[in-house]
Amino acid sequence: MRVLALPIVALTLAACGEAQVDVETLDAPGPYAVGVRITEAKYTPPLTTEERKLSTVVWYPAEATEGERPFYVLRSSEVATLDAPALALGPRPVVVFSHGHQAYAAAMSQLMEHLASHGYVVIAPTHTGNTFLDGSDRETDIYYLRTYDVQAALDHVEGLGDDLSALLSDTRVISGHSFGGYTAFALAGAEYPVDDLDNGCAAGTVSSGYCSTLDDEKRALFAEGFEDDQFSAVLSYDPGDFGLFGAAGVAKIDVPVLHVVAEVSGHPVGDPAADDYWSALSNPSDFRWLLKGGDHNDFTDACEAGLDVRCSTLVPQRVFRPTRVYTLAFLDGVVLGEPGYEGILSGEVEVSSLAEVTTR
User: Fold this and answer.
1) What are the tens digits of pLDDT across the range 85-129?
2) Which of 165, 177, 288, 359 is deepest in the core (most CB within 10 A)?
3) Are the CB atoms for 314 and 285 separated by under 8 Å?
4) For residues 318 and 312, what is the distance between their CA atoms, to the nearest angstrom?
């Protein structure tokens, strides 16, 4: 494992005999217009007969048309067009995004619009009952419902039988911010040490939300786990709840992970070994970058919109640049296996002075 804080080098360098993709190309909007649709997924979760409804946002490459711009709770889009016809590109790679605790589906809308402009389809369910409208309390159910929400939203869009569903390929990545990062790791195969968690609940050392309404039926769900092998990689932005898996549980994940953290969230510069998630992961293609001086919500739309909750003093667009570039480089270079990203993914090409890169 190595930590890289290297000087800027020419972006035209070749690695492994391949011309390198230019950083500015990854940072700039892609070649496609962006469409956005809001649809409602419905399903009946385990342990209940009540239907659960999830407002779901989908971003996708679209025909360039005039139309209404969406409003994403904290910002109005200058890029996406509501209900624009999807481009008939054939199957495209899919990213499913899980928002954080007390957040909302479009919490990272700027990144999701960027991915759609580069040809990705992004599906983001609302985790009903765990949004900014619902207060800070958590109960046991939301720790497993989130995983079923993700699967239900993806199944819903796939089953629409329209121009959107025609864009979905079998290449699928799970992503999430904060509590959504926990959700992503659960779906990627992290395991729960349920006996240890039981002891922790009794001792008061495990999340009170997880323990709050835990019973034998719910415990059985966690014991079985929530791995979904349709997801071939993870994009995790400042994830939480490591303690529900522990190092051994996270070590069960074998797909590549883009792991993003912020210094003020408790990740000191120059010490990746202190990062519990990173230390437990082991895929050779894992990639970590730390936002120097950054805080938890800097990766979302919140800080630029002026919602000063766990925001740093960094200029938001300086944060968005490495977020865009490293996310696309990881998706294109690692998930899709396209050449030309070796310089960025090895850390040899500096993308931002705010980013500390760690590779295996």
Assistant:
1) 999 999 999 999 999 999 999 999 999 999 999 999 999 999 999
2) 177
3) no
4) 12
Q: Mean pLDDT of successive 10-residue segments in the chain (360 residues)?
A: 42 56 98 98 98 98 97 96 98 98 98 98 98 94 98 98 97 98 98 98 96 98 98 98 98 98 98 98 98 98 95 98 98 98 97 98
pLDDT at residue number 3: 52
Query: Which residues, including other chains, have CB under 8 Å from residue 78's CB and lie 6 or more apart?
Result: 69
- Taking the C-alpha atoms of residue 308 and residue 302, their distance in angstroms, rounded to an integer, is 7
Token output for 265 = 């969230």
Token pair, residue 321, equals 């640049």
DSSP 201-254: HHHT-S-HHHHTT--HHHHHHHHH----TTEEEEEEES---GGGTHHHHHTT--
* Average pLDDT of the chain, as a whole number: 95
- Compute the C-alpha angle 313/124/82, nearest 5°: 95
In 3D, which of 80, 29, 79 has the Cα closest to residue 57? 80
CA 329 to chain centre: 14
Helix axes 109-117, 316-330, angle to 10 degrees: 40
- C-alpha 103: how far from chain center: 13
Enter the CATH code of domain 30-297: 3.40.50.1820
Beta bridge partners of 97: 175
